[in-house]
Amino acid sequence: NTLEKADKGQIKIDDVTKDFTVKDRQNTRDLILKTAMVFQGHALFDNMTVLQNVIEGLIRVKKMDREAATKIGLSTLDRVGLSDRANYYPVQLSGGQQQRAGIARAMAMQPELLLFDKPTSALDPELVGEVLSAMKELAQEGHTMIVVTHEM
Question: In what residue span(s) does the ABC transporter domain sit (predicted)?
Fold first, then answer.
């Protein structure tokens, strides 16, 4: 996802191979579009509703019109059990709900690979189950995920 700069090695996702010894902006962009990341601290924009957080990437990165993005956003929020929270702001959600909103944002981009950075470590113990349940559902649907976790 280029949050960290690599100076050697390769990553291949489907038909895109990124060789980090070669500067190639288009190839890097193609690779980024095949991945989405769910962060430990949710990384939601506080000044946007949950739905706005979910559709922002669809509009800005994928250049989708707002109506189509909203349809995908609402559907994705429904999949993670947050359709009733679409117009809430992150501060109005529990930690588990915020993390599920982060998962919905990542899923809305329809990535080939989901990257999870300690998705449950910032949560109260009683909220961990709802996030793990959402992740298990993604796995059962056949989504490819790389998960960095302390969860046992």
Answer: 3-121
Q: Is 150 helix (H, G, I), strand (E, B) or coil?
A: coil
For residue 122, give both structure tokens: 């910032």
Q: How far apart are CA 132 and CA 151, in angstroms?
A: 10
**Domains located in the chain, CATH noted:** 34-148 (3.40.50.300)
* CA-only gyration radius of the chain, Å: 16
The angle formed by the CA atoms of residues 24, 26 and 32, to the nearest 5 degrees, is: 105
pLDDT tens across 19-73, in order?
888 888 888 888 888 899 998 777 899 999 999 999 999 999 999 999 999 999 9
Nearest to 119 by CA among 74, 104, 109: 104
Which pTM value belongs to this model?
A: 0.86
Q: Cα 14 to the chain's mean position, in Å? A: 19
pLDDT digits (tens, 9 = 90+) for 107-130: 999 999 999 998 888 778 887 888
